[in-house]
Amino acid sequence: MAAVDTLGLEKWTGVHKKASQYASLALMILSLGLSCFYWGIGSGTFTFFILLMTIASLVILLAPLRLLNYTFLTLIFACSLIFETLLF
Hints:
single chain; mainly alpha; 4 helices; about 80% helix
């Protein structure tokens, strides 16, 4: 399948396949470890897989619409940071 190439990162991951696989594996293990540290082994693992499925579903839904660009991701990140700071 051809990459959408809206962020430019897809081209790099296509060229550097092994490095991108190792980097993504390291990030996933780090996030799993942090969620297990924060919520415990059972709840952390369950929460990790729920979040992983949710984000993967959003990427699959939004990538063909070309909504995943730097401005959209920055806006989503800023809104989530503001909501997290003000509400919790």
